[in-house]
Write a structure and sequence with these properties.
157 residues, mainly alpha, Cytochrome Bc1 Complex, Chain D, domain 2, 2 domains, 4 helices, binds heme C
Length: 157
């Protein structure tokens, strides 16, 4: 009798425990489900902006690449050194603005070439040096087009 009573009590307690756990679980699931719904809604809301943000840099890179290709295509491949010089370098290098070495003037170029060689002055033209802006401001010019412009400027020296 005593034993049965205890068993019954124990079972009741367990059922009670279970129910309580069950209620707790239900509450937890409800909270979790609500949180998930809110999160999902936010994720959904954010995704449009985020997608736009994520596509943007790729789009820009792509457009920049397309433009470069377009320039080359329009010019029938790489621009000649003379073309680059006339469009980007002439403003300073014709008259020697700010001490720029002048077109085809050996006295201006020879000391620079002696000191750094063609590769050295080429690197300085790409990176900029003192009042010489990087790439002579021709940001769409390829490394080789800048080199061709230099070769044009030092032609015959
Ligand atoms: C805004 C004026 C300006 C423009 C535009 C410009 N340059 Fe220069 N460049 C300079 C000046 C100034 C120097 C002399 C810098 C110094 O040595 O202090 C110079 C120097 C150089 C040198 C010599 C670098 C060295 O190491 O001695 C090269 C090569 C050169 N320019 C190439 C170019 C090319 C190629 C272009 C066109 C794509 C260009 N520059 C456009 C102003 C300019």
């Amino acid at each position: 009798m005593n034993y049965r009573y205890n068993l019954a009590r124990y079972t009741l307690l367990k059922v009670h425990d279970c129910l309580e756990t069950d209620v707790k679980l239900k509450t937890w699931f409800t909270v979790a489900a609500t949180a998930l719904t809110v999160f999902a809604a936010q994720a959904q809301e954010m995704s449009d902006d985020e997608i736009a943000d994520r596509i943007k840099p790729i789009g820009q890179v792509h457009v920049a690449g397309a433009q470069a290709a377009g320039n080359n295509a329009a010019a029938g491949g790489a621009k000649s050194g003379e073309d680059v010089y006339n469009s980007a370098c002439v403003a300073c290098h014709a008259a020697g603005v700010l001490g720029a070495p002048k077109l085809h003037v050996a006295a201006d170029w020879q000391p620079r070439l002696d000191e750094r060689g063609l590769d050295g002055v080429w690197q300085n033209a790409l990176n900029g040096i003192n009042a010489m802006p990087p790439r002579g401001t021709c940001s769409s010019c390829s490394d080789d087009e800048i080199k061709a412009a230099i070769e044009y400027m030092i032609e015959g020296i």
